Amino acid sequence: MATTIMEVARHAGVSASTVSYVLSGKRPISQPTRERVLASIAELDYHPHAGARALAGNRTQVIGLVMPVGSSGLHRPLLAEFMMAISVTARGYGHNVLLLTDQEGQRSVVDATRGGQVDGLVMMDVTLHDPRVETVRRLGIPTVLIGLPAEPGGLECVDLDFAAAGRLCVDHLADLGHREVVFVGQPEEVYRRQTGFAERTLTGVLDQARERGVRVTHRPCEGGWSATAGLLARVLAERPSVTALVVHNESAASHLAGVLRNCGRAVPEDVSVVAIGADAAAESGEPPLTSIAVPAQRLGTHAVQALMAHLEGPRRPAAPPGARPAPGPSPGAGAGPDGPGGPLLLRPELTVRASTGPARSAPPPRAPRHG
Amino acid sequence: MATTIMEVARHAGVSASTVSYVLSGKRPISQPTRERVLASIAELDYHPHAGARALAGNRTQVIGLVMPVGSSGLHRPLLAEFMMAISVTARGYGHNVLLLTDQEGQRSVVDATRGGQVDGLVMMDVTLHDPRVETVRRLGIPTVLIGLPAEPGGLECVDLDFAAAGRLCVDHLADLGHREVVFVGQPEEVYRRQTGFAERTLTGVLDQARERGVRVTHRPCEGGWSATAGLLARVLAERPSVTALVVHNESAASHLAGVLRNCGRAVPEDVSVVAIGADAAAESGEPPLTSIAVPAQRLGTHAVQALMAHLEGPRRPAAPPGARPAPGPSPGAGAGPDGPGGPLLLRPELTVRASTGPARSAPPPRAPRHG
DNA sequence: CTGAAAGCGCTAACAC
DNA sequence: GTGTTAGCGCTTTCAG
To answer: Is there a single domain that holds both residue B196 and residue B285?
Structure first.
């Protein structure tokens, strides 16, 4: 049934080890031999047995993707985006991805690791005090974290530079003349749980606001239409001179424009809006929102590249059709003084869409638009 | 470093095979022996080596999840939903999930299968003429398809009963007195590609419309705000007496209410809306839409259960905390006359939200609401 | 540059 | 009810 390396060897008139070395490239093989072997492999449609390989070679060519399962700050579209990017990049390096959901504590992670099922791990949605970090540290398996824990414990981290994102939003609005801004944030609980990215964003916003002489009012938001509407009504009554919003909350962002219209404020004529979050949420609304995307794809790709670098010296990807050969972590990285060893923080990029414009001196509540 | 079965055996004063049999339960072990062995396993923190196991036992306890990668009709939130459900259910059966993206053709699927890396496959987002189906059929690996291909070739299929979903929408509207309905469908291309689910929905809608004396106008829709707005403006001008919409298009659904408001029609006072698609899209709008959800979770769970049934006689799940013991494919199944062997079509469930109400005899275009 | 052979850690007959 | 043993298919010394 299953073709073995011995059959290939016989068919090519060589020994099994030669076939193995042709495949691994771990020792020089003469051109003619190599060709005969490859021909036999093709003809017999040989596929090496992964288990045998793992047993003998102590490497599986599989990376584990540790997913959040319970209360994740990560929203669904992003999750899918991450997985795609990670899977595609991993395959570029000849690796497959094993899904590790930690429903039952961290059993699946520990089992897979100790059972020699994976060569390394990528852990998604890492929070500030994430118990999983200590687990993998103890397991001693090469791991890259997506997110920034308080104690990386020597593990590599990859994330969006949320502080810079916050600053960038304020800059954009300040450049347009806005001086009074509301920051619609994550649900209260997220700040209490110290998720990290939420605080970093807030800090960035506040810092740059001070810098630019912008007044910022921070309001956590539960998301959904009614919560968002209520929040906005209150805060706009409180601060009538607000001319712009920064929103770091996907499920609020999609409603903002509608809510504002209902309050009789046009976007961007009366109020400008900048979002931080999944592109899908920003693009799909009316008007589409100027936003800073969480670059799930780039983050996933970088995470895998970083992991591969750890897996065995600078091995290069198997030239995946369409994937660049990863000439180092240059793209969009704001590595800062940490250099290699510090977290890899991707520089945020602001996409200007239709929701931001110059500030009005007075914010005139008008009748809703009819077109 | 890694504890082996032999070390456990020595520590417990038994042979390796006994340890193996304690773990697999494939032969009776006396109570005292079993206990000693389990104690040793715990004390030494033994984790069987997956590769060795796969090699000797010819089973990996891993299922492959074949994901769409390119032009998928499936939208992101659903994808994530599927994966979670599948992964969680699989772990309930003691299996892990290997992600198989078919970017480079079907190489990853073939490699993983022939390489003995997976015991079975779940294939997502299967279309009517899906080339992957023939591939897995030829590979001869146990596979469950999510979606209905034209030629299942003996493979098991699981899907939502989209025809029934279409009928259910029409019934709901007809019951409310609506007689003139627009069906906002998938993008034109989807119908041309014969994706299957799109046609089945359309058929269901048209059939039941005939049955109930409802007039239906079908319009494919590209999605997004402007396309949706344009489409609606045209069709409402054409058919002024329309009082309800059925929308089978996530990226149009989220805009419908807003667009209608902009046309001066209130939902549901002037126009009722029923959606078929991801719950998230329906729930998040204002007003939230009455809808039939694609039950990603249930579909994923059923797919895995069906696969497990194929993997080796009726093996039972390892009593996962909180997962029901799968007493057969009863829940919500409209198995029909096919019984076991035919596709498992889940019965659609309509969730009434705020977007549907009784039909008005005349559809009076009014001024937009100010609240 | 190539072969022979010793395991990797486990499962599943086959013995008793 | 338990122990012995022969591989599973591959990688990698060690020889040549």
So the answer is: yes
